[in-house]
Specification:
The complex is a heterodimer of chains A (about 210) and B (about 220).
Chain A lengths: L7 E11 L2 E12 L3 E5 L6 H9 L6 E6 L8 H4 L2 E4 L11 H12 L6 H7 L15 H14 L4 E5 L7 H16 L3 E5 L10 E4 L4
Parallel strand pairs in A: 3-7, 3-8, 5-6, 6-7
Antiparallel strand pairs in A: 1-2, 1-4
Helix pairs in contact in A: 3-5, 4-5
Chain B lengths: L1 H18 L2 H20 L3 H24 L1 H8 L2 H6 L5 H30 L4 H28 L7 H28 L5 H28 L3
The chains are: A alpha/beta (about 210), B mainly alpha (about 220).
């Protein structure tokens, strides 16, 4: 299944206040199907906050993020189109990689690859039935990224996706992202290092 | 959506079995309390059987409180809660299912073991029945009420203390009517049904309302 090219994410004049401090002042962004957006900027400038607001974890003070120009103020329909991989990997140490991915699939719906195939894709086929607690930081990261592949959702929000990945895994991630874009998906990544894919939209957040 | 909720339930049961701690800790604590009380009170069987229902209920309440702080905290710390927020299943139902799973692991064993522990407190047949039935209805209510406290303290590293302070006042009505139901069953002079039906009502009310409150608290926790 490929996503329609017409879908897009629209962020309109987003203001976010956290702990009494205005973190984002009027951020606007339009991301079309098949496009990669990179959010850059120094530490503490609000990159993660922007992704978390789009995912619906944090409420904006004003403005909205919407899908397909529906203009809906409610973020819930958007949240169901989102895959979010953040600093916390959302994996249970006591469960095996396969069980974690299977749970992620049941939670998100819309199956695409089986957990086994997804782990093959991130080159972790040898640890399918090992509890995630025994994996290294980079391996855990790859299991978290494999979740993107088991359930089919058009918008990927990746917060520092390259953290803890070695050179080969970075190339692999770029391949996965390029595949997703090729199928008409959208990727918005907060990152310090450019992923180096053509046609990237850069959104630079400036310190206030 | 049913699949999602079943998966949450099953995952929580598997996790509690693999990680251990929660359920067995509550039982050992309960056993410890029930064992120590006769030594503290002395060998007065009449006194013991009179206050036995209250002691079992105190033990069950404290044992329930013991494991509650990890109910949502573990999922919050490793980011699983974020994944649940992105699920089409409403957070209220996810909370409800997590509470049920938690009760199956911590509350249900207490209910099953309470007749045995009641024997150690010199309770007779009707009293044992009364305590067990009141625990069966009352401990889920405690778990649901406790979930509100667990959700409010989810971001606090050492939230257990604050959780207890928040939950104790909410648990007072459950405590009053469950102990009076159990005592009524023991004495036989007062109707068992009156306090028991109020306890049932409290249980149903907490079942219906607490997940909504806890889900609202969890949504606000990110801010």
């Amino acid at each position: 299944m490929s996503h329609t090219q017409s879908c897009h994410l629209l962020v309109a004049d987003l203001w976010v206040v956290r702990g009494g401090r205005t973190v984002l002042r009027g951020v606007s962004l339009r991301l079309d199907g098949g496009q990669l957006g990179e959010v850059t900027g120094s530490n503490g400038v609000g990159k993660s906050t922007l992704l978390r607001v789009i995912a619906g974890f944090l409420p904006p003070a004003s403005g909205c993020a919407s899908w397909n120009e529906s203009g809906a103020k409610d973020l819930a329909p958007l949240a169901e189109r989102v895959h979010y991989v953040g600093h916390l990997d959302g994996l249970k140490s006591a469960l095996t990689a396969r069980e974690n991915l299977q749970f992620g699939l049941t939670l998100s719906g819309q199956a695409r690859l089986t957990p086994r195939e997804a782990l093959d894709r991130v080159e972790l086929a040898h640890v399918v039935d090992l509890p995630v607690g025994y994996l290294s930081a980079g391996q855990r990261r790859r299991v978290a990224l494999a979740r993107l592949l088991v359930a089919d959702r058009p918008l990927w929000l990746l917060d520092e996706p390259l953290t803890a990945l070695d050179r080969a895994a970075r190339v692999m991630l770029m391949g996965i992202v390029a595949d997703h874009l090729g199928r008409g998906g959208l990727v918005l990544a907060a990152t310090h290092e450019p992923l180096g894919l053509p046609g990237t939209l850069e959104l630079r957040l400036e310190a206030q | 959506m049913t699949d999602t909720l079943l998966a949450v339930f099953y995952r929580d049961l598997v996790l509690s079995r693999r990680i251990g701690g929660g359920g067995s800790l509550a039982i050992i604590f309960f056993l410890g309390l029930v064992t120590i009380v006769p030594f503290a009170i002395g060998p007065d069987l009449n006194l013991l059987s009179r206050i036995g229902p209250a002691i079992l209920w105190l033990g069950a309440f404290l044992a329930t409180l013991l494991g509650l702080d990890r109910l949502f905290q573990a999922d919050h710390e490793d980011g699983s809660l974020d994944q649940m927020l992105l699920s089409p299943a409403p957070l209220e139902l996810v909370v409800l299912v997590k509470c049920l799973a938690h009760w199956c692991v911590t509350g249900l064993p207490l209910v099953i073991l309470s007749p045995l522990f009641g024997l150690m407190l010199a309770l007779d047949g009707p009293a044992l029945g009364g305590v067990t039935v009141s625990l069966l209805v009352g401990t889920p209510a405690l778990t649901f009420l406790g979930a509100i406290g667990a959700a409010l303290t989810v971001t606090l590293r050492r939230g257990g203390l604050l959780l207890s302070i928040l939950v104790v006042p909410l648990a007072v009505p459950v405590m009053i009517f469950s102990v009076s139901a159990a005592s009524a069953a023991a004495s036989g002079t007062v109707s068992f049904l009156t306090p028991f039906l109020i306890l049932c009502a409290l249980g149903l009310a907490s079942f219906a309302l607490a997940p909504i409150a806890a889900a609202a608290a969890l949504r606000g926790a990110g801010e």
